[in-house]
From TrEMBL:
Residues 486-495 have a biased composition (Polar residues). Residues 31-390 form the DUF222 domain. Residues 472-485 have a biased composition (Basic and acidic residues). This is DUF222 domain-containing protein. The lineage of its organism: Bacteria, Bacillati, Actinomycetota, Actinomycetes, Micrococcales. It comes from the Bacteria. InterPro entries: DUF222 (IPR003870), HNH_nuc (IPR003615). It comes from Leucobacter aridicollis. Signal peptide: none annotated. Pfam families: DUF222. Residues 231-258, 295-317, 446-502 are annotated as: Disordered.
Length: 502
């Protein structure tokens, strides 16, 4: 490999051959997966006839168990996975046939199909005519995004579309789900265990964000001298280390050898158990601004009401100033959305909005493109517009929230690139480094579309996710005569976004 992560011509030929090969193999794999699902669906129909294979009698239950065991042994897999496969087979054939056809044609992957089925489950509980029509509308709408997005990016989109067509409102489902809040522990090998908290999404995302923010400051205190490990999540480097990925040659005596994930886990543990932080990890300069801008996305956020200035020393209460940061989008028409998760009910969105430190009014054109952002507090207008447009890192498939990303000049400012929304986009630190230090080429097309060209010449276009959220949806059959929950007081056609901190 040449310097700066660039490939030689011979290496590019080998990579091109490899990528072409796996593309062909992936197409064949998708066709075979679709054929496998169709075969299993046929077996289910033979045993149970049309309709769901419900265990309505002991005989049917035994027949289902027998078939499940047969599938598991044939695949040398667990019965749990076999049951999941049988469920996907049935639902893909009976409820989401168009998606199964798309898998067979190679247009989507089995991961996309599972997302479509999972998020469309509220629409597959009934077999009446109205429900079937709503399901077809959902599938027709979501499959267009499945062709362009990764399964992870597709999930919140599919969830929102399904919520719009569901007969049961999002608020009703959320109210029922709230009653299932719980904490459970799963014992694992090697002296480890998983602690799982089943919480409202806004609380879970706020907890994760605050833990990540404290962990980031902890890593900064340690000087970023963390040992890199190939094939695992890269440790958090300092600014000097970020570009090279190489740890300092002369490590400080208090070098922290933990990965990012280890630091986050330790912070989570210490917060819950009320432990004090390691003195070596809290000797840090913390700039706390009482009037910190909650939505600027230009650096670490500070807690409201804190004294301005620099604090330093071994004081665990300094971390109390770290606030969780979440972003909520409230369209004038449609379902409110927690960025990074998906749709939330109107009451929850209103509660978050009531305590928000800042609101933004986002104006869009008929195609859903963000054209202006107004805010009730003065701040960097351009940054606000970019956050509202991008929502997350603009590298293909990446979902790191925009508030945790760098604002990058698509064409380097040093090369004459303008500082304008047509030449700026959010990139996470990892993809920012890839853009500047490898042969990937990035250009920006009209409408905020970011085109990535790989070293082998393949092009991948990343469309602004805000266009998915802000576009006025089609007039399709809906539940209870509504296209979706609204509850927003925004002007017609004017979505509203706000940032909240906890």
């Amino acid at each position: 490999m040449q310097s700066n992560g660039r490939f030689s011509k011979l290496q590019l030929v080998e990579i091109e051959n490899a990528i072409s090969s796996i593309e062909k193999q992936e197409t064949k794999k998708r066709r075979l997966e679709a054929e496998q699902l169709a075969a299993l669906a046929s077996a289910l129909q033979r045993v149970f006839g049309r309709g769901r294979p419900r265990p309505e009698s002991a005989d049917r239950e035994l027949a289902y168990r027998s078939l499940r065991l047969e599938v598991a042994t044939a695949l040398n897999d667990s019965e749990h996975n076999a049951e999941r496969l049988l469920s996907v087979a049935y639902l893909s054939r009976e409820c989401f046939a168009t998606s199964l056809e798309a898998l067979h044609a190679g247009h989507i992957s089995s991961g996309h199909l599972r997302v479509i089925i999972d998020e469309g489950s509220p629409l597959s509980a009934s077999e009446d005519t109205d429900e079937a029509e709503r399901r077809r509308c959902y599938e027709r709408e979501v499959i267009t995004f499945a062709r362009e997005e990764t399964p992870n990016r597709l999930r919140p989109i599919a969830r929102r579309i399904a919520a719009a067509y569901s007969q049961e409102t999002l608020a009703e489902r959320h109210e029922a789900a709230l009653k299932r809040r719980c904490i459970r522990i799963v014992a694992l090998d090697d002296g480890m265990a998983d602690l799982i908290a089943h919480l409202p999404a806004e609380d879970a995302y706020a907890i994760k964000d605050r833990v990540a923010a404290i962990a980031k400051r902890t890593i900064t205190v340690s000087g970023g001298a963390m040992v890199p490990s190939f094939g695992k999540q890269s440790p958090a480097p300092t600014t000097d280390v970020a570009a090279s990925g190489v740890a300092p040659a002369h490590e400080a005596p208090n070098v922290d050898r933990r990965s990012r994930d280890e630091v986050r886990a330790d912070v989570f543990r210490d917060l819950l158990l009320g432990r004090t932080f390691d003195p070596a990890l809290v000797d840090v300069d913390v700039d706390v601004d009482a009037d910190a801008d909650a939505g600027s996305g230009s650096g670490a956020e500070a807690g409201a009401g804190a004294d301005a200035g620099t604090k330093r020393g071994n004081n665990p209460h300094e971390w109390d100033q770290v606030r969780a940061h979440v972003q909520v989008v409230i369209p004038a028409h449609g379902v409110p959305e927690l960025v990074g998760y998906g749709p939330i009910d109107t009451a929850t969105a209103a509660g978050l909005a009531a305590g928000a430190r800042a609101w933004e009014r986002v104006s869009v054109d008929d195609a859903g493109r963000v054209i202006a952002v107004d805010r009730y507090r003065p701040s960097a207008e351009m940054t606000r517009l970019l956050i509202a447009r991008d929502l997350h890192c603009r590298a293909p498939g990446c979902r790191v929230p925009a508030i945790r990303c760098d604002v990058d000049h698509t064409v380097d400012a040093a090369l004459g690139g303008p500082t304008s929304t047509t030449n700026l986009a959010h990139l996470c630190r990892g993809h920012h480094t890839v853009k500047h230090h490898t042969d990937w080429e990035v250009t920006q097309e009209p409408g905020g579309v970011v085109k990535w060209t790989s070293p082998t010449g393949r092009e991948y276009r990343d469309k602004p996710p805000s266009r998915v959220r802000f576009r006025r949806t089609s007039d399709e059959p809906t539940a209870r005569g509504k296209r979706a929950e609204s509850g927003s007081t925004a002007t017609q056609g004017t979505p509203v976004s706000h940032h909240d901190e906890f």
